[in-house]
Amino acid sequence: MSESSGDDRDIFVTAKDGLRLHVREYGAVGGPQLPVVCLPGLTRTIADFAALAPALVNDPQRPRRVIALDSRGRGGSDSDSNPDNYNVAVELADLVTVLAALNVGPAVFIGSSRGGILTMLLAAAQPAAIAGAVLHDIGPAVEIGGVMRIKSYVGRLPAPRSYAEGAEILQRLFGAQFPRQTSAQWLAAAQRTWRMTEHGLQPTYDVQLARSLADVSPDRPLPALWNEFDALRPVPVLVIRGANSDILSAATAAEMAARHPGLQILEVPDQGHVPLLEGEEIISAIAAFVAACDRARAGAAAL
Length: 303
Hints:
Elements lengths: L1 E2 L4 E7 L5 E7 L9 E4 L12 H6 L8 E4 L18 H14 L5 E6 L1 H12 L4 E7 L7 H10 L9 H12 L8 H11 E4 L2 E4 L22 H5 L6 E6 L7 H10 L4 E5 L11 H23 L1
Parallel strand pairs: 4-5, 4-6, 6-7, 7-10, 10-11
Antiparallel strand pairs: 1-2, 2-3, 3-5, 8-9
Helix pairs in contact: 2-3, 5-6
């Protein structure tokens, strides 16, 4: 374990096949509040939770433990020499290994895109592990148009000469979905997308992740996960949807609400896939939801 600033700690957990998985842990272990587990998207890293995690940890009313996991091949985790292992079955096994290694009991999961898919799969495999879920611009049915858009750039992004140039690349690619994103936000996005190496700026993920989408096409979309989503029915669920999302449709979100009594939907205007987890409004909404999960858990225990 290597210490970082403040209350966060970088931890490495060994997966069953020997790969090192990077986890950032915030806050004290063993507090009275439910812990929170943050799971990033396909090519994303724990940097997506850099504003949210400290806000949850430092809530003066309900401070809590937060852990954020870089899936294999992303961020600080090892890349896999066999890119066929970049699949949700292996990543789910990695998640279970991390939860056991860090002694994380029932928790609230914040699953962003692919991280939300892992959350639904975990609910089906180990329902007792989940006390609540935030599905961040993801649902049981994934729009094939959005998947094909993602497939078109994963592992194929141009190599920028600077973070400023990277910001320009991202704005050209995603500006239609995020029309109001500021220059500073595009620059921050570039700093999350690339990292400086001895060979210049390189993606923060293994470009072989593109293999995970190789077989996906309009004729072979991703399988629906309605049964796995239904496994979340006993716990509170918050869905965060970008109004411009091409991954989670409004119709799918409505069907999720119909199947899950009490499900909450937060739609973020002028943003697509995935909405930024920053700013007072969205962080406050997530904090309030997580606090409601504490109360629901306590109420269930009292029965």
